[in-house]
Amino acid sequence: MISIEPLSSHLGASVRGVDVSKPLDAATFGLVLKAIGDYGLLRFPGQTITPAQQRDFAAHFGHTQAIRGRLAIFTAPGVPEINILSNIKENGQPIGATDAGVIWHTDMVHNETPGFANVLYALKVPRRDGRVLGGTEFYNLQAAYEDLPDDIKARLTDAYGVYTGENYTSIERTPFPEYGTNSHKAHKKEPVRHRIIATHPISGRKTLYCDPGHVDYIEGLPPGERDEMLQYLLKHIMQPKFHFVYDWCEGDVMMWDNLRTVHHAVLDFGPEEHRLIWRCQVEGDKVFDAAFVRQALSQARAAA
Ligand SMILES: [Fe+2]
User: Fold this and answer.
1) In angstroms, rounded to a whole number, what is the distance separating the alpha carbons of residues 120 and 100?
2) Residue 216 has what pLDDT?
3) Last residue of a domain, which of 218, 237, 256?
4) 34 by DSSP, 3-state: which?
5) Residue 209 dihedral angles phi and psi, to the nearest 5°
6) Given this model, what pLDDT does residue 185 score?
7) Is the same domain home to 107 and 53?
8) What is the Å distance from ligand 1's center to 11 Cα?
9) Rounded Cα distance, 298 and 58, in Å
10) What CATH number corresponds to the domain at position 162?
11) Do 108 and 115 contact (CB within 8 A), yes or no?
């Protein structure tokens, strides 16, 4: 029996009764897919899984992307889709990436079809004086869209965010120091365009799909309005009412939806406060297939 309990007033739910180490039957998969559409972030507590099992669970939801670029050296042996995030050193050498995801962003925004989800598994969580460190923070882009004034929604109807991967600093972001600074730059990619006001492929609800860390500019507005609008949107997204902090616990498998959130990792722990998390990225190929989603949601309705 699956139970789903919200984690906050606007984002996240805890899901019990799912064994992530095993293949999901059609009914369970449908319920989980519907839940990620409804809640944007799902916590599966108390799991024990291998890297291959994590990848196989993630693959229910879409193609799992092998880790590329500077993080590719930190992957699980034989499972290149599992990226190791950690500050632990063995024999003086880091076993994982220490500074991944520090700026606000959403993952796989440079994919032609926007990336769907991340599936993470926590093995070690740092704590100090009983307080959990190394959380992951989010802003809810669906709630941000719904709170936009009608005139802004109208102006953005045919607007696109353009992403090239090279111009991380092309937009003046100094009013928002909380973005942090990039410690790296991606190499130039073919530009991709994504609708700023996107329709979520599972929930059918609108979301303000705008990656503050990586968007180059907005297309579809008069040139004189582009930067002003981008500044407005970034400030709008980063309001406390859309904010959510996820505190990890060992054994958590946690899945978040990149289409309706931006996130960043909080580096508030020291080198001896060990954190170890495995990460897997899920592409949008399955969820942007309307027949696939329809079938899964009908399974969920039958199982509910
Ligand atoms: Fe990320």
Assistant:
1) 13
2) 81
3) 237
4) helix
5) -85, 90
6) 52
7) yes
8) 17
9) 20
10) 3.60.130.10
11) yes
Locus of tokens 């990039």: 182
Domain residue limits at 96: 3-137+243-303
CA 164/CA 125 separation, integer angstroms: 34
Ligand 1 centroid vs 19 CA: distance in angstroms?
A: 25
Same domain, residue pair 129 and 247: yes
Q: Can you tell me whether residue 4 is helix, strand or coil?
A: strand
Domain finish residue from 219, 237, 255? 237
Residue 66 CA to ligand 1 center (angstroms) comes to 15
Q: What is the pLDDT of residue 196?
A: 96
Q: Which pLDDT tens digit goes with each residue over 226-271?
A: 888 988 998 899 999 999 999 999 999 999 999 999 998 888 888 8
Distance from residue 51's CA to the centre of ligand 1 (Å): 19
Digit-coded pLDDT (tens) for 106-120: 988 888 899 999 999
Its sign, for the CA torsion 1, 285, 280, 216, is negative
40 and 70: one domain?
A: yes
Measure 295 CA to ligand 1 centroid, in angstroms.
29
| Contact (Cβ atoms closer than 8 angstroms) between residue 104 and residue 179 | yes
How many distinct structural domains can be found in the chain?
2
Low-confidence residues of the chain: pLDDT under 50 = 169-176, 183-184
**Which amino acid belongs to residue 53?**
Q
Coil vs helix vs strand at 2: coil
Give me ligand 1 centre to Cα 103, in Å: 9
